[in-house]
Amino acid sequence: MKIIQLYDTTLRDGAQQEGISFSVEDKLKIVQKLDALGIDFIEGGWPGSNPKDTEFFTRAQNLNLSHAVLVAFGSTRRVGHTADEDANLQALSEAKTKVVTIVGKAWDKQVTQVLETTLEENLNMLMDSISYLRSKGQRIFFDAEHFFDGYKTNPEYSLAVVTRAAKAGAECVVLCDTNGGTLPAQIVEAIKAVQKATSVPLGIHAHDDAGLATANSLAAVEAGAIQVQGTINGYGERCGNANLCSIIPTLKLKMGIDCVTQEQLSKLSAISRYISELANLPHYDRLPYVGISAFTHKGGTHVSGLAKWEDSYQHINPDLVGNRPRVVISELAGKGSILYKARERGIPIPKSGEIENVLRQIKSLEKQGFQYDSAEASFELLLRRAQPDYQPPFELVDFMVVVEKRRRLPSSGNQEELLSEATIKVRVDDKIVHTAAEGDGPVNALDQALRKALIQFYPDLTGVTLTDYKVRILEEAAGTASQVRVLIESSDSQEHWRTVGSSTNIIEASWLALADSIEYWLTKQAGQARRKI
Fold this sequence. Notes:
CATH architecture of the largest domain: Alpha-Beta Barrel
Radius of gyration: 30 Å
Number of helices: 18
Shape: elongated
Number of strands: 16
Strand order of the largest sheet: 1-2-3-4-5-6-7-8
Number of domains: 3
Largest sheet: 8 strands, parallel, barrel
Helix content: 25-40%
Distance between the termini: 72 Å
């Protein structure tokens, strides 16, 4: 059975992505998650390059890892210096990791134009550095930077870099597509050439500038590479690195390589989302395998097929990677979509005529600007309202919103201020409540007035908050008379839900989304939050 080493560089190469800055605590937490995932080698950073990485390697010595080996990263000695006086190599030794990854140039133009030294000195630099760290008892991986670009123009020199690194004692030479522009066939061709020149085990480190990092990594494995380097979620500089969240399940499920256990694989989606939270980045919905949209179905024929046979429009069972299938509703939906969502959300299955009515509503409303695939709470309300015995928790009688620009007294400093006030009348059972509230804007005033009216009936409503509000102009050519769509996201700290409204009047569109948000929560409470007066 083929053995593949999984090497994660999220904490070093991934952290070079703009917008990412892991704290030391973040990095320690991520190491433990990667260990649980079954990663073999975790590159923690570049000791000596900054105080944070130095602190990390000091504290990481106390981690009790069950599987992974921590790796320190650094470069070859500087031009014109000996290895034993190089501060970078000293820091790598002092990091006290069992494994060190050394990076060196494998492209002749990089040597002469960036390092500004001779090709022979570059070879001496890498051999000296590897030999020095080997003498300190550390295992060495060598990253041959820009290997594939170098191989295209001067294959003899790039191969010499690999063979010298192997001779110096590197136990694995990792071929790097640093600029991310190599094609899979070129990866395979170069690897075969290296295999003829040396028997040292090979690895692959690919960047995604041409959208091929994952494909190149898998092609390298098929060609004989035994180590795959990458990052969680493909984080990295420019267009990112090879995405381990795509590589790991493909190796195991498509190529039959048991690089992780099934239990570890089932943690993949959760770990992907966890690390995106620590990176303070939104989790990309369309990530293969682990994205929320990876197994999402919108077309009616797809949903109908899925209901009959789960594999009809899914390349794997999403449970294998800790994900799940989703069905979203739109004007493309069919009867199967409605039935699927009703079962999924625990709503009584509508009768045939009710389903037809819901479908007609959806198609008509989406033509008017509503969008239910991103507002499932509003869709659920459509289903519930189709039930003959459904009683809404409140009904709007009328509302009025006033926005007034007032002049203030000269002594108050600012001469003008904007005031938004909403007056609302709602019916709860046989009671009508008429109230008003001010807000920071017209929508906030409406929100405050509605809550003020309902709170006496539903006191737990205080726990519901509006967390996001988005407005999209649907017909730009119509100018200020265009149709607008409002999406509102709400939360009660346990659940998040989205609702939608659409109108040529932004206040009405906002009201529709806002009212749906409150009605959805009250309906989900099944009357438990209610207290009659």
